[in-house]
Structure formats: C-alpha cells, structure tokens
Amino acid sequence: MGANQMDYIHIISNASLMVKFVLLLLLFFSVMSWSIIIIKMRYIRKAFKESDIFIDYFWKSRDLAGAYTKAKQLGGSPVARIFRIGYAELRKLNTSGKPGEESGVPDETSSLRHEFSGSGNVKRALRRAINTEMTRLGQMVPFLATTGNTTPFIGLFGTVWGIMNSFHGIGQRGSASLAVVAPGISEALVATAAGLAVAIPAVIAFNHFMQKIRVIETELHSFSADFLNILDRDILR
C-alpha cells in the first residue's frame, strides 16, 4: 500500500462524522450507478445484437410464421418482441374470419370495414408494444441523471462542512497555522473530489444510454411502419 493511499485512509478515518456520512452517501450513489451502468450496457448491447439478427432474418425469409418462431428465440430483442405482439394480433383477426365467409356471400362493405379495423387493431397493438419497450429501456437510467446532478452538491456540502470545522479549530486554538487549517481543508477537498468522481461517469453513461435508446426507438418505429405496410399490401386484402 502506497504512501498516498495511507494518507487518504488517514484523512477519511480522522474526518468528522458528517463528512464520513457524506462519503458513505457518495459511495452508495457510486455503487448503484456502476451497477446500473453494467446492467444497462449488457441489456442494450444484447438488444442491438439480437434485433439485427431478427431484422436480417425477417427480410430474408419473408415468412411471418417462421419470423414468429425466430422472434421467440430472441428474447432480448425489442424489435422481435413488438413483432410477436403484432403477429399475435394478426392471428386473432384470422381466427375471427372475414364477414360473409360463414354465409358464403361476400359483403364488400363489411369486408372493407373489417380490413381497416384489422389494420387499426394491429397498429394499436404495435404502438402499445413500442411504449412498453421504451419504458423498459428507460428503466433505471434516470437514476444516473439524479446521480450526476446531485452528487457534486453532496460533495460540496462535505466541503463546506470541512471548512466550517477548520475555522472552528482556528477559533478554539487561537492559531491560523497550517497544522490547524490543513486537516479540515483536506477533508473538504476529499468530499468534493469524491462527489465529482461519482458524478462524471454517471453523466457520461446517461448521455450514452439516452442516445442508444433513441436509436432503438427509431428502429422500432421503422420496423412497425414496414410491418404494417406488408399487412396492408399483402395480407389484409
């Protein structure tokens, strides 16, 4: 263990109770932030990878039943999940059948109404699925923004407290020597440095994840539009 590490441990162990509490609070934010960063990084990386696999399979196969089977294998893909919901809604429409089929007399007006109603149902199901996916992707990410916004102020609070203790020591001892002032200032600087060390990675990760989530959202809307176009053009007619 180096001399610098020993100095930091000495400073923290001799810090006031309030500064120790501030450092403990910053440690909590740091552990939570890094846990979220690791979890979201794995989740988003898997979402991109499996979505690419599914979209590639979907456009190559052009087989909805096969794509549905493939989508069930790719549980980490948001695109595959919204396809499964859209396909399930489509199967409900096929199960209900077209108007006039039972009587054997086709009714063009009823059939057209059924067609637009079916397309609307699938569209609403896809929209709900996209909203659900966006909620799922955004989970825990706001905590990173909270960490980035609040921990510098928490560290600053420790700084102010340490400086107050320094002036209190000067008043009690009647001396403004470096030996009296330095310990309190050190506590203050450690708290500030800790607050910034927690905040900076959290802000970087928050901006990174929000950019990735926006890309996935665009991908979901594009796939949804393409899927509805296929239904309107080739299936619900």
Task: Summarize the structure in words.
With 237 residues, the protein is mainly α. It has one domain. The protein has seven helices and no strands. It has helices at 3-13, 17-61, 64-73, 78-96, 108-138, 141-173, 178-235. Helix 2 (17-61) runs antiparallel to helix 6. Belongs to the exbB/tolQ family. It comes from Desulfosarcina ovata subsp. ovata.
How far apart, in Å, are the first and last alpha carbons? 75 Å
> What's the main sheet like?
none
Mean pLDDT: 84
Order of helices and strands: HHHHHHH
Radius of gyration: 29 Å
The number of domains: 1
User: What's the shape?
Assistant: rod-shaped
Q: Kindly state the number of beta strands.
A: 0
| Helix/strand/pairing category | mainly alpha
Provide keyphrases for this structure.
7 helices; 237 residues; 0% strand; mainly alpha; rod-shaped
Summarize the structure.
The protein is 87% helix and 0% strand. The chain is built from 7 helices and no strands.
Topology:
Elements: H1 3-13, H2 17-61, H3 64-73, H4 78-96, H5 108-138, H6 141-173, H7 178-235
Keywords: Cell cycle, Cell division, Cell inner membrane, Cell membrane, Membrane, Protein transport, Transmembrane, Transmembrane helix, Transport
Domain MotA/TolQ/ExbB proton channel: 120-220
Membrane topology: Multi-pass membrane protein
